Amino acid sequence: MKRLIFTILILVSCLFAKAQIAIDTLSTDALNELLIEQIERLAEDSDEDTDFEDLLENYIFYSENPVNLNSDEVMQLVELRLLNVFQFEELQKYRRYYGDFLFLEELEMVEGFDALTISIIAPIVYIGQDRGKEKITFDKLARYGKHQILGRYEQILERQAGYDDISDSALLAKPNSRFLGSPQRYQLKYTYNYRNKIRAGFVLEKDPGEMFFTDKVSDTIQKLLGKNYQRGFDYVGFHLYVKDLGIVKAAALGDYQLAFGQGLTMWSGMSFGKAGTGSSVMKQGRGISPKTSANETMFMRGAAATLGKGPFRGTVFYSNRLVDANISVADSLDDVELVSSLQETGYHRTIGELQDRHAIRQQVVGGHLSYAIAHFEVGYTLHHTWLNVPLQIRPTNYNHFYFQGKQLTNQGIDFKYVKGKFAFFGEGAMSINPDTLSLQGTSALSRFAGLVGMTIKPAGYLNFTLLYRDYGKAYQNLYSNAFSEGSRNQGQRGIYLGAEVAPAPYWNLLLYADQFQFTWLTSQVNAPSWGHDYYMRLSHSFNRRTNAYLQIRSKTKMKNSTDAFVFSHYPVFYTKNSVRFNINYQIGRDFHFSNKAEYAHYRNDDGSNSHGFFICQDVAYKPENKPFSLTFRYAIFDTDDYDSRVYAYESDVLYSFSVPALYGKGMRVYLLGKWKPFNNLTLYARIGSTIYNDRDEISSGLTLIKCNHKTDLKVEAIWKL
Amino acid sequence: MKRFLLLILISFTVSTAFAHDFISPIGGRAAAMGGSSVASRGLWAMQNNPAGMANIEKFSFGLYYENRWFLPETAYKSGAITLPTKFGCLGLSFNQFGSSKYSENKFGLAYAKNFGPYFQMGLQLDYLLISQGETYGRQSAITFELGIQSQVTEKLRLGTYIFNPVSFRLQQSLNQEKLPIVFRFGAAYQFTKDFVGQCEIEKNTEREGISLRGGLEFEALKHLYLRAGVQSNPGILTFGLGYAFSFVSIDAAAQLHQELGSSIQIGMIFSIGK
């Protein structure tokens, strides 16, 4: 019988031989495209330069360590949002009916798997036997485990003002006027992986401006810094992680991330927030995962374990971490210490930044319990945070309901129901702060937050998502990363409606509209405000080597008027519209080309009106069967001001990401080289430069550069064993 | 007097919209199709995107004349020669805008080559000379322009062109005045055998905003082409006719600018050999 099925499958796969070629040639490009789109949108929505490394490391990890299509590991694809829940259900159904996958091409026969989905997941899955339960011995760990060492050097070649020479007395007079260390960034990372089941490693990093082994400062400054005098690698992290060993579903020691439900109660790492479209708006909490990046904020440090039996899963976690904070002594008589703000940059370059380093201890303890039957899953999360020094932020109106005090408890219930053409999901959460200082004048209801959503898939080529969220203005949570406009899950209400349509073969349309309202003041907005965000992206594949998209986005929000002639800075509307066209094509097998043009328009009700424009040509030479590749970009940009800036994703060395915000007038070029001299060693080098036409000085303060160009150099080596 | 006023008006408009005219698309066909030309082929590609002359198989030369708003002072003259060789196509070009009082001249040496049937690349080295009459003297500069064209499907051809990519400056000018960088990219799509559509986007770093161009060409009778197009920033509508004889093709165009009136372009290309 099995033989018969096998023969049929071979015949069928011959029919799909054309598709087989498609899978071969698309390689990782489709996955890259998907990530680039979301990262760019995320960068547009983030306020400052955000480090996306943490968010993207998992994708790289799995593209280097593919998951077995015939095992429960496939769930990882859903958690990475590369498959939606419907596709996952169909996949499981297919396996139940026809048994394990024998060829990747069989995916074509699974309902809901279009060419795009297959080309996205193809590079990160493999067909293997489900090992089921296996005994892990030290011998196996030593023989099949994979080691990887990554070293990276990075530097801005032009001299920045913060590195200028200064005398000690001048520095003592103005302690934050210089960086104490050298301008290089170094990172060293070691990781071990045994069949994605046991992972371990450490990461060391020194940021630009931080003191390395060779940097020296005078004794007076050493004395001033006291115990905060710090040289060598500024950040040191390690992780040990096991997955699916008997009843232990996951366990972590060292640095790890937590993500449960829809992320309203606990989602310690970064999330794509609103950047996911259509059916990926529904989040999939990954539970415990290792934290392998050098991101210095947003993670847990301690221990966590998930045990599971039957439909139940239980997780306990504990984290104890020193975090940066600005400590001020409130009362000199009692010597009461207070924290005025938590620092989240991860930089320790100046005397001031070093004094804030690891100033307070943040502890979290909690757990998650879940119960899952056929199509339904429900979970409960509870955690408690305490600081060793009470947080008392400098009061302004917009932060009136922010977390203050020493302790905070959060709890929440999440659920999801997925069956057939229908997915229903949500999470409700609340915060309990024993220090009622910041909660004066609020109702109990404002400490609750909730979101509920559903996705309907009437046909394979069509799905709609509706999501409603209401986060109370006094809902305080330090680890909340649910769907929201902006990064703060507090004082926000909104409705999101999205659709994914494939109107014709090789055409794809993504649409969403999000209307939101901030129920309390926000930073730089002196009143409750509202806005909306509309997005459309139409993409087309001319053939399997040529695809293009057109993207239109319009976002309206409110911001304080900067009109000098008004006394009260009331909020006014501002709108940013952008239109982008992108085309990727390939000539022969070795040359990849890409063009992008973007037009951005910014206007606000104060009367400011500005335009921005970006255009580029990318050329990549990736010869097959040769151990090297080269990528080059030439771009020019012209924007009236910072408001009409343009973001453009750039190829980078592996595990690193750059999405620079370009504004002003000038050009941007970069050259990225990859070379594999031996089978297990890969070298990367990248040099990028922004040359301005309209200025002789770049940036300001400590990062001021006194010329019209800024050049960054990166060199990376990855050694695999 | 009327003419004098018009000249002043033009010099205001032109100073922002047309400063340094070395880089406007030329040729009777491009002029009739809203200026869109970055993905087209032929002799005038030498100026519009040198990659497009890689496929020229015959020794050919061309002449082009544009009379902007019927003013001799704003005439644009151009001539070009191509010489196909075994190693690619070589070309020489000369462009002149203006009159004896003020003129912009460009001398170019071009080279284009086929890399397989689907990809062409071209390069032109330029010597630029601005002559401002006796009082103000001359300024000159050396720069280059680069282009690629790719036939990505049977019907779709894409092109990218960059003038002065490394931002050379004008010598002898007061503050080492910058030359613009011009970046164009666009497509030509062969809808049917006798119907072509073209579009492109252009950014000139010395101009405000961007320029979008589009054009259509229909082969109404054998060798007789009807063309129309539109361009934004400055907003122009264009129309034209072309006829290809055995050894010479003649293309004529008219462009309508709302404030400045109409301009006439005419180009001829002679091809010699088998």
Overview of the molecule:
The complex is a heterodimer of chains A (721) and B (274). In chain A, the strands form four sheets. Chain A has a 24-stranded antiparallel beta barrel. A two-stranded parallel ribbon of chain A has the order 1-2. Chain A is globular. The longest helix of chain A is centred in the N-terminal third of the chain and has 17 residues. About 3% of the residues of chain A have low confidence. Chain A is built from eleven helices and 31 strands. Chain A is mainly β. Chain B has a 14-stranded antiparallel barrel with strand order 1-2-3-4-5-6-7-8-9-10-11-12-13-14. In chain B, a hairpin with a 5-residue loop joins strand 9 and strand 10. Chain B is globular, with a radius of gyration of 18 Å. In chain B, 43% of the residues are buried.
Keywords summarizing the entry:
heterodimer; A: 721 residues; mainly beta; 24-stranded antiparallel beta barrel; 11 helices; 31 strands; B: 14 strands; 11% helix; 55% strand
Chain-wise SSE layout:
The complex is a heterodimer of chains A (721) and B (274).
Chain A: H1 2-15, H2 17-26, H3 29-45, H4 53-64, E1 67-68, H5 75-79, H6 85-98, H7 115-121, E2 125-126, H8 138-144, E3 146-156, H9 168-173, E4 184-194, E5 198-206, H10 219-225, E6 235-245, E7 248-259, E8 287-290, E9 300-309, E10 312-323, E11 325-331, E12 336-342, H11 351-356, E13 360-373, E14 376-391, E15 405-419, E16 422-432, E17 448-459, E18 462-471, E19 492-501, E20 507-518, E21 529-543, E22 546-560, E23 571-587, E24 591-604, E25 609-621, E26 628-639, E27 646-647, E28 661-662, E29 665-678, E30 681-692, E31 709-720
Parallel strand pairs in A: 1-2
Antiparallel strand pairs in A: 3-4, 3-31, 4-5, 5-6, 6-7, 7-8, 7-9, 9-10, 10-13, 11-12, 13-14, 14-15, 15-16, 16-17, 17-18, 18-19, 19-20, 20-21, 21-22, 22-23, 23-24, 24-25, 25-26, 26-29, 27-28, 29-30, 30-31
Chain B: H1 2-17, H2 28-32, H3 45-48, E1 59-67, E2 75-85, E3 88-98, E4 103-114, E5 119-131, H4 133-136, E6 138-151, E7 156-163, E8 182-192, E9 195-204, E10 210-221, E11 224-231, E12 236-244, E13 248-257, E14 261-272
Antiparallel strand pairs in B: 1-2, 1-14, 2-3, 3-4, 4-5, 5-6, 6-7, 7-8, 8-9, 9-10, 10-11, 11-12, 12-13, 13-14
